[in-house]
Design goal:
two-stranded antiparallel sheet; 6-stranded mixed β-barrel; 19% strand; 322 residues; 10 strands; alpha+beta
Length: 322
């Protein structure tokens, strides 16, 4: 494994600061814990080895805890009382939207050095071991190896999954992946349907143009205009119409993206109003290039039938067309 940290928890701890009080969970961990659990610090710093070895009474506040105890005021270097014991705040976590959790949300917790938990209770037996496999390692293989090692140390069968529970957080990512894929497929279907409708509309416009300009086409052919010239003329007109519509669409898309900014995604499911789980909209140059190319193809295909029809008109019949 790459990183490892034991963890002990104490629930129902009263956290106090200048008359404000909040019920929190204390988590005693090693410095490697932030890497395993993907914790981000927005104010101050995370725990280090010096904090752990010297059993300093320092604490990291979850985002919700910091908001409830300090409001918008800076929390670093301030004192927080945990069940009557003073701790110094050295950091504040970024708001964390969790799909899966084995206890209380990280936002509702405070984190202290593992050895500093001795002021609350025994540190000999951790509640949990959180670990991260080596980058690129097969996850299931890594879980089997960890279970086998624990079975060797504690004398139980390595095939007994009930003896020790190993929860792989990455399996919950399939939920997010599936939801994201569904959104992409929906947007792709809407885009394809829009292009198809636009292509049909363009073909009808060009066919109507051929009918309205039948005598003009007959005059051009009577004066020596060749089929290829008329064919190119209508294809160019179709491409220009598509280009104008595409430019307008891209412009409206950029403006709409700027005005909308983001869309709710995971936040409502977790009653989170901070915007952490929102989808932030943007217009990428690659999407503009791809959509422009597709539009040109649609324009050529939609304009081809009317253009061929115009180029094949008999000049005598076209001149007598009413």
């Amino acid at each position: 494994m790459d990183k490892l940290s034991p963890e002990i928890m104490k629930n129902g701890v009263k956290a106090q600061h200048l008359g404000r009080e909040k019920d929190v969970s204390v988590r005693a961990v090693w410095p490697e814990y932030d890497i395993v659990r993907n914790i981000k610090i927005v104010e101050g710093r995370w725990l280090n080895e010096d904090d752990r070895q010297h059993q300093y009474r320092v604490v990291i506040l979850g985002a919700k805890v910091a908001k409830d105890l300090f409001g918008g005021a800076p929390a670093v270097d301030e004192d927080v009382i945990l069940n009557g014991i003073h701790f110094t705040v050295i950091g504040v976590m970024d708001n964390k939207l969790q799909i899966a959790n084995y206890n209380r949300s990280d936002n509702q917790c405070v984190f202290i050095p593992y050895e500093s938990f001795s002021v609350f209770g025994d540190t000999k037996y951790p509640w949990f071991l959180v670990w991260k496999p080596v980058l690129g390692a097969d996850q299931q293989r890594a879980i089997q190896m960890v279970r086998a090692k624990l079975a060797e140390l504690h004398r139980f069968s390595p095939t007994d999954e009930k003896a020790v529970e190993i929860l792989a957080f990455s399996k919950f990512m399939t939920i997010i992946t599936g939801m994201s894929l569904a959104v992409k497929l929906l947007l792709g279907f809407v885009g394809a349907l829009t292009l198809a409708i636009g292509g049909v509309g363009l073909a009808n416009i060009m066919l109507a143009s051929v009918i309205d300009r039948t005598r003009e086409i007959g005059m051009i052919k009577a004066l020596g205009g060749v089929r290829s010239m008329i064919l190119k003329q209508f294809l160019v007109e179709a491409c220009l119409i598509v280009a104008a519509g595409g430019a307008l669409g891209i412009g409206l898309g950029v403006v709409g993206t700027y005005l909308i900014g983001s869309m709710p995604f995971l936040g409502p499911a977790f009653r989170d109003t901070t915007g952490t789980g929102d989808i932030y909209l943007s217009v990428s140059p690659m999407s503009v290039l791809v959509s422009t190319g597709v539009l040109l193809v649609v324009g050529l295909v939609a304009g081809l039938v009317p253009a061929v029809k115009a180029s094949r008109l008999d000049p005598i019949e076209a001149l007598h067309y009413e």
